[in-house]
Amino acid sequence: MIPAEQVQRFRNAMPFWASILLIPLILFVATQGGWWLILMPLSTWWLFTLLDAITGLNLENADLDTTEDQLFWYRLITMIWFPLQFAVIFGLIWYAQHSTHLSIGEKLGLFFGVGVISGTIGIVYSHELMHQKTRSERWLADLLLATVLYSHFRSEHLLVHHRYVGTPRDAVTARYNEGFHRFFPRVLVEGYGSAFRSEAAMLRRKGRAWYHPANPFWTFWALQAACLALAYALGGWGGLGLFVFQAFVAVWQLELTNYVEHYGLTRRYLGDGKYEHVLPRHSWNAAHTASNWLLINLQRHSDHHYKPHRRFPLLQNHSEDEAPQLPFGYPVMTVAAMIPPVWKRVMNKRVKAWRRKYYPDIADWHPYNKGLNPPPRGAA
Q1: pLDDT over 70 for what percent of the chain?
Q2: Do residues 127 and 310 touch, judged by C-beta distance below 8 A?
Q3: Which of the residues 129, 267, 326, 331 could staple to 166 if both were Cys, CB 3.0 to 4.6 A apart?
Q4: Average pLDDT, stretch 176-190?
Q5: CA distances from residue 240 to 95, 102, 229 in whole angstroms, order as listed
């Protein structure tokens, strides 16, 4: 256990600030163009895979009695990220559309890199912020999500995913043997509708219609419209296209991560619309040190679902006795997910081992594999 006094030191928080180095890097590659553009994916996916191999696993846990004040340096990086990301996205839209040295292909390559930043970092930080109780942090989460046109993720994640993970109601729980290329379009469609229905159901319970001003979708639509308008104002139709392209890249990375986090892991159906409580074993855990620095401990996903409001420095690592373990960190696993035969060869045997360990009495897995079990009772 790492004592609270040690957790709060700036030097212990510093590795989680690695993302800040991506800002000068994207500005540099924008001025160079050409083959320099591959530095963005290389510096996130591949560099951190190499660093994972060097740094190994981090199995230590922070003292849960650590106070909010002692987490200042950890919270700060998530709080300052929105203005940095906003400046990068819209500053580079203006730059790309007014510079003469970038071809159309280079502009797309540049904004693929921008999407790497807004997806790998921006959405991960928004995920951390949306789970907090302070209005300022939740507002920053909404602003970050607007810059990738995925504002409904907040509603879908908090109202649906965390309540119904591992059940047919949760679109984000990837089914056993479901390849990512089938999962991705399904979750894009089902996730949006699911989020909207959940917000409408909450309003209905208060005697209000879906179009009541309290529906956060009005805010979502307004923020996204403002981002689209600003992209057009700065770069015309080309600038608007670049903005939408980076948003797509960011969302693609988010859903790749979602796919990895829960693939094949389902909660036991108890009958009468009831499912067992969410436990650490219903999410894949990864203790790879460097990629947890980059992703602010997102890979300690088993603990996040067990205690959703726990701030990222305090997320606990769960051993293989408590939660299933990924063989590699997210950078490697998301690449594997893009190649279904590789993914299934690596992961299907692990899902089967998980089933034998925790649910040896379940003989028929077909309803779980195909999402055919009844929806949870009370689900919107």
Answers
A1: 100
A2: no
A3: 267
A4: 97
A5: 13, 17, 8
Q: Which of 200, 193, 355 is nearest to 263 (CA)?
A: 355
Spatial distance between the Cα atoms of 167 and 80, rounded to a whole number of angstroms: 36
Selection from 155, 180, 158, 160 nearest residue 171 by Cα: 160
Residue 379 is predicted with a pLDDT of 76
> Left (φ > 0), alpha (ψ -120 to 50) or beta: where does 378 sit?
left
HSE-CB at 172 with a 13 A cutoff on CA atoms is 29
CB proximity list for 125: less than 8 A, separation 6 or greater: 77, 78, 81, 144, 296
State the burial class of residue 256 (Cβ atoms within 10 Å of its Cβ: 0-12, 13-18, 19+): buried
Where in the chain are the domains? 4-369
Q: What is the CA radius of gyration of the chain?
A: 21
Quick count: other Cβ atoms within 10 Å of Cβ 227? 23
pTM: 0.96
CB atoms within 10 A of CB 295: 28
* Amino acid identity at 138: R
pLDDT at 380 over 80: no
| Alpha-carbon dihedral sign for residues 219, 222, 224, 226 | negative
Cα(259)–Cα(232) distance, integer angstroms: 33
Name 186's Cβ contacts closer than 8 Å, sequence gap at least 6: 171
HSE-CB at 169 with a 13 A cutoff on CA atoms is 24
Q: Are 306 and 278 in contact (CB under 8 A)?
A: yes
CA 45, chain centre distance (Å): 15
Residue 288's φ and ψ, nearest 5 degrees, are -70, 125
- Ramachandran bin of 316, using left for φ above 0, alpha for ψ from -120 to 50, beta for the remaining angles: beta
